[in-house]
Amino acid sequence: MNTTRELTPELHPDFSSPGATATPWADVVDALRRAEIFWISTVRANGSPHVTPLPARWLDGALHFTTGLEEQKGRNLVRNPHCVLTTGNNAYRHGLDLVVEGRAERVTDRARLTRLAEMWAAELDWPYDVDDDGFRHRPDGSAPNVESGSVPVFGVRPSKILAFGRGERFSQTRYRP
Asked: What InterPro entries does the entry give (predicted)?
């Protein structure tokens, strides 16, 4: 999905309040850009789910995140790149929850990695340097709770996004490329 073109929303009336309208694509992009924490769901080798929170950034129509390949989510993604990232809030009467489905792919383009590292530093106060394998933690210990070393960066270009709006009317909107 490309953020430069607006996608057409498809309201699911069976799961929406009477009179509800579809969530505009611009609202979805805004929420993806503002969100700091997402929950990633991957699948272990035995088929059981693995869910964990992580920071992610929306850039050029994809969600980007880091994980070590020795971490459970990293091992899962190497074996099966299909994943789901979710974000939103835990209020019942207001908010917008988003579900992003897609395939995680390694980001190796230096220009994109540089832009992402700048976003991590500016938006999350988490400084990274760029190297051939992805991001490198700064040796000065300025990154939170990490050891020095390189971590791969993944991007998920959505195959489907669901937006669940809550408020005066509840809505379920789907977007596909």
From this structure: F420H2_bilvrd_red/Heme_oxyg, Pyridox_Oxase_N, Split_barrel_FMN-bd
